[in-house]
Design a protein that fits this description.
Blueprint lengths: L2 H4 L1 H13 L14 E4 L4 E3 L8 E6 L4 H16 L4 E7 L3 H11 L6 E4 L15 E5 L5 E6 L4 H10 L1
Parallel strand pairs: 3-4, 4-5
Antiparallel strand pairs: 1-2, 1-5, 3-6, 6-7
């Protein structure tokens, strides 16, 4: 390697390190305080789930990948009581969610309804499904975009 090329290595490492640093004005993403309706008609705020780590899955009944991953997520919720699994339904009403549960033979825990997709912007949801992992204080620690596989979910939960 030419002598001048050795000088580029530290410069490249410094540039890479700079790119990984938080930008001025950037902030930690936290679970927004937002009150939504549950399937039983009661209301719940997303922040009500703080105190345990939270797995927040945004989904819709018309979303094919959501339909495929839902049984896996419901089973993970049953198998991991130390976590709050919250299922944020985007754009459906309660009737559509109940029909979805009947069709798949599932009872989805902690369903919150967002029929007008008001949380899409605050949660930076640009497509479905999305699984967001928050620590017990409500700080976002990981995001999985798209259908999650059993291996991917297991890996995310182990990191958690």
């Amino acid at each position: 390697m030419k002598g001048w090329m050795w000088g580029l290595i530290p410069l490249g490492l410094l540039a890479g390190f700079w790119l990984l640093q938080p930008r001025a004005g950037s902030k930690v993403e936290v679970l927004p305080s937002f009150t939504l309706t549950q399937l039983d008609g009661q209301t719940a705020n997303l922040t009500d789930f703080k105190g345990k780590p939270i797995v927040l899955n945004a989904w819709a009944s018309w979303c094919g990948p959501c339909r495929r991953e839902m049984p896996l997520l419901v089973e993970a919720a049953r198998a991991n009581p130390e976590l709050h699994f919250v299922f944020l339904n985007i754009s459906d009403g309660p009737e559509a969610v109940r029909a979805f549960e009947r069709e798949l033979g599932l009872k989805i825990p902690n369903v919150l309804l967002d029929p007008d997709a008001k949380l899409s912007d605050p949660l930076r949801i640009q497509g479905l499904p999305v699984t967001l992992l928050y620590d017990a204080q409500g700080k976002l620690v990981n995001r999985h975009i798209g259908e999650i596989s059993a291996a991917e979910l297991e890996g995310l939960l182990k990191e958690f």
